[in-house]
Write a structure and sequence with these properties.
alpha/beta; seven-stranded mixed beta sheet
């Protein structure tokens, strides 16, 4: 590694950026990231980046619109400072659930965010567990979509007994559940769910045998925790011994923490793609595993122009 690599952080997840830099034996880049009194984002790069390979780390988490704008301005600042290449490292890609037209006259916001990032000057995107894989095709620049599964599995294998059934919270998550089940040598079950409105879910029934077994619900995003907690109760009613949750992106908006605390879930295992807030950190049922080493490895491989493929497992 030479001195041409620099890593800068937005305000959304500075701790993750610091951990990435520790893995690479680097210091985070010197940048001023503030907000003017009228709410506009203010970014200034305080060191030379001319001709350098620069990585801007920013999760598009709550408040998503502010963090998106902050990232766009940082990319523009780096581009105008003559950085050779700017890679946007987006551990959590916001608006990913708006990846298609579900009703007439609705936007495809995930594509709009992709266009904004490209127009701002990003040369490459590094992200983790995109909600929909086809979002990679929304970009005309390279996209590396890492998977947090190895990080989560490392903890799960040492925490949960062997008699595991991996549960998909809906039909769309079956492929993800199958991937976990293959590596845990476990069977799978599926929650048959009906969703009457946005952020409102209703569990109907369970496909598969969960009686007397430890159930592991795997999902990529837990937002209001309605789907997760309803699935937990449905599994317990069907005879599951214990129920664990597992997700990459812990959005945990609204009263999600209260739902988790009030549920029969033994643990919810998450990563730090989104910075844990005080309530998340204080919740005894939530275990946070860091993906800093995974992102650090991807960054150094991109910088050295070596293969990133082995990280896609």
């Amino acid at each position: 590694m030479n001195g041409n690599l620099k890593i800068f952080s937005g305000s959304s997840n500075k701790k993750l950026t610091e951990d990435i830099c520790k893995n690479l034996n680097l210091y985070p880049g010197d940048a001023m990231v503030k907000t003017f009194s009228d709410g506009e984002s203010r970014i200034e790069i305080n060191e030379n980046v001319r001709g350098m390979d620069v990585f801007a780390v920013q999760s598009l988490s709550i408040p998503g619109n502010h963090h998106i704008m902050e990232l766009l301005i940082m990319i523009d600042a780096l581009k105008r400072a003559s950085a050779k290449r700017v890679t946007a490292v987006i551990p959590y890609y916001g608006y990913a659930r708006q990846d298609r037209k579900v009703n007439p006259r609705t936007p495809i916001s995930a594509k709009l965010v992709a266009d904004l990032l490209t127009t701002a000057g990003a040369h490459r995107i590094l992200t983790v567990d995109l909600h929909a894989g086809q979002i990679q095709g929304f970009f005309n620049i390279p996209v590396d979509n890492l998977f947090a599964m190895p990080v989560l599995l490392e903890y799960i294998k040492g925490r949960i007994d062997k008699d595991i059934v991996v549960v998909s919270p809906d039909a769309g998550g079956v492929e993800r559940a199958r991937a976990f089940a293959k590596r845990l040598d476990a069977s799978i079950a599926i929650i048959d769910k009906r969703r009457p409105g946005p952020n409102v879910s209703e569990v109907m029934n369970i496909i598969g045998d969960v009686g007397g077994r430890n159930a592991l619900i795997v999902d990529d995003i837990v937002d209001t925790a309605g789907t997760m907690t309803q699935a937990v109760e449905a599994l317990m009613r069907n005879g599951a011994a214990k129920v664990f949750g597992c997700t990459t992106h812990a959005v945990l908006s609204g009263n999600a923490i209260d739902k988790i605390n009030g549920s029969s879930m033994s643990e919810l295992i998450v990563t730090d793609t989104i910075r844990p807030n005080e309530r998340t950190a204080a919740c005894r049922k939530i275990v946070v595993k860091s993906i800093a080493h995974l992102l650090a490895e991807a960054i150094i491989r991109i910088h050295e122009e070596t293969s990133v493929s082995s990280l896609f497992v």
